[in-house]
Amino acid sequence: MFLNDYATVAWSSGYLPARMTEGYQLLLADEQRAEEMASLREDPPSRAASKYDSHPPISDRIALLEAAPDVPVPPGGERPAMDLLRNGPELLDAVLVTGFTEGVSSKKKLDWASLVDIGVRDSNQAEALRILRSRRLDDLLNLLDAGRLEELAEPTAPPEARARAQHELYRAQVHVRLSIVVHAQLAKAGAAHWELSWSGPAKLVLAEPYATELDPAVGAAVDGDTAPLRALLTPLHS
Q1: DSSP 210
Q2: Given this model, what pLDDT does residue 170 score?
């Protein structure tokens, strides 16, 4: 989770964290994450063993560790093991990086807050381009004015679905997809960024008036009234 959601969040954008070990320590110190890990300790994940496994199941390894004799810590031995290393954090950072692919040498280093903001922003931008499919935001709004939600959604409703149920399904999808496109434009204009959270996914932070007015305007647009959203976004193009 640390590697996928944090350390490599901006990998495709060309960045890695400047202080990787520090980030891992902050993740472990987060209260919510600590509760999640405590729950995992109480109920470790289990799966059926395979003859192709390179290691015994996690539950077996935990049982072996718990069965080991309790070795008392000698006086003065309570210090962290990192104290034994010269330049410990820097050394551990270098060791962690060896687990990445050859492209690691080309990555630039960023502080954690900037890394997460850039990584999530670029991911959001890529998803926005996928949704737009060479169209402009105005084209999407014109479709909404015409009530053609199905052209903005990923149609997953079964053919036998009633029109009303299908419309409700489309409405939820289009609200999410339109929000992604608008967030990408706001980020490009400097009116939105993503804030690092060690407790969960990065948090979208919007400048005013978007923080309070954007979601209702998107909801109105999905329902066929795009005027509030158009007015809200006009300053971005001025």
Answers
A1: H
A2: 85
